[in-house]
Amino acid sequence: MKRQDFTAGAAIKRILVAGGAGFLGSHLCEELVAQGHHVTCLDNLETGSLKNVEALTGSNRFTLLKQDVCDPLPDHLRVQEIYNLACAASPPHYQADPIHTMMTCVVGTNNLLGLAERCEARFLQASTSEVYGDPEQHPQTEAYWGHVNPTGPRACYDEGKRAAETLCFDYLRMGRADVRVVRIFNTYGPRMRPDDGRIISNLVCQALAGEPLTIYGTGEQTRSFCYASDLIRGLLQMMAAKDNPGAPVNFGNPGEFTINELAHLVLKITGSPSKISLHPLPVDDPQRRRPDIGRAHQLFGWKPEIALVEGLGPTIEWFARELRKGARATID
Ligand code: NAD
Ligand code: UDP
Q1: Could you tell me the distance, in angstroms and rounded to a whole number, from the CA of residue 147 to the centre of ligand 2?
Q2: Helix, strand or coil for residue 314?
Q3: 3-class SS at 51?
Q4: For every one of its 332 residues, what pLDDT tens digit does the chain have, with 9 covering 90 and above?
Q5: Which residues span the domain enclosing 239?
Q6: 54 located within any domain
Q7: Domain named NAD-dependent epimerase/dehydratase: which ranges (predicted)?
Q8: Which residue, 120, 206, 251, 256, could crosslink 211 as a Cys pair with Cβ 3.0–4.6 Å?
Q9: Mutate to test the pocket of ligand 1, among 27, 85, 251 (most ligand atoms within 8 A of CB)
């Protein structure tokens, strides 16, 4: 089998972003186009939206390819880099069609890896902290193999992403593609959908609407929240690195908060009179999560710059604008 030369290519590149119309994907597309690259955004618009890439559609360096990543990719596609962000990331969305979620992770990633091999393109897989499941090690290092229920309702995503990592590292070991895997921890920011269903969008939209804040379980479970721009910077650094790390790399903000602490912070910043309402904890909901980001720091000097209290400001403004637009659309 032919071994590839894994050195970096030309300065201006042709880049495919699968899932590019989603929350994180659209920020990535925007940054890549701004850097002068030619970007093809492949997306089936399942959880993504045309609105997210509206500002880019006027650029001759941006092309939208509306298709499912599980379907055969067009023969004419020729790219030098591939970012695979295609997959619904919010539990209610990825659980709505769990078999399709698993297929997106496995068949979709395999399709894109095949394209990377044909084009000799560098490939970056957006994996997740969910590969650690409900972790027994805290904080989570990349060496931890995880604690995932393979048959529960979260498995379509957790096991799908784990299987996708397996494919990625087999392609890399076999010399078929220069594959890099990032494990993203809970990331938030503008362009999340008000109906996304994840904690930040739910709490902020509820607080802005004066509705009760829904807390699942006791609210003492923790998460560590990374602002979108910090994460995007990490993805770009990982893709640009001359040497392939040859192992997954965690990207996230180590600042760890209970869901109760987050709810009170949102109430304080929004000045909302909303009350808290307690609901049952979803099955297999991880109790604690915090990234060990030593590897990202050692490899790239990467660390997040935006604390939760700073990132919530622009995020709240985004949701306030979206809710106002929604209210106006209802009146019209
Ligand atoms: P998102 O749901 O906003 O984006 C996912 C995008 O993929 C959407 O545009 C969606 O339409 C598209 N998509 C889904 N299935 C597809 C398919 N079969 N074919 C083509 N397009 C498809 O979610 P996000 O938060 O932007 O997450 C982006 C990626 O990052 C996902 O792969 C997710 O697993 C990963 N990730 C995100 C977080 C986070 O906290 N945001 C954490 C860990 C991992
Ligand atoms: N959660 C909550 N209320 C909500 C949405 C989520 O209490 O309205 C909890 C959820 O049970 C989990 C945490 O917040 O413990 C983070 O949930 P999210 O869906 O954002 O991300 P994930 O569980 O995938 O990390």
Answers
A1: 18
A2: helix
A3: helix
A4: 333 333 344 489 999 999 999 999 999 999 999 999 999 999 999 999 999 999 999 999 999 999 999 999 999 999 999 999 999 999 999 999 999 999 999 999 999 999 999 999 999 999 999 999 999 999 999 999 999 999 999 999 999 999 999 999 999 999 999 999 999 999 999 999 999 999 999 999 999 999 999 999 999 999 999 999 999 999 999 999 999 999 999 999 999 999 999 999 999 999 999 999 999 999 999 999 999 999 999 999 999 999 999 999 999 999 999 999 987 776 65
A5: 14-329
A6: yes
A7: 15-246
A8: 206
A9: 85
Is 94 marked active-site?
no
CB 229 within 8 A of CB 276: no
Query: Residue 150: exposed, middle, or buried by beta-carbon count in 10 A (0-12, 13-18, 19+)?
Result: exposed
Coil vs helix vs strand at 215: strand
Whether 153 maps to a domain, the answer reads yes
Q: Count of domains in the chain?
A: 1
Q: For residue 300, give both structure tokens.
A: 């790239």
Choice among 132, 157, 171, 188 that is catalytic: 157
136 within some domain? yes
Give 82's strand partners. 16, 123
Residue 46 included in any domain = yes
Determine the straight-line distance between the first and last CA of the chain, rounded to whole angstroms.
Answer: 61
pTM of the model: 0.96
Cα 84 from Cα 73, distance rounded (Å): 14
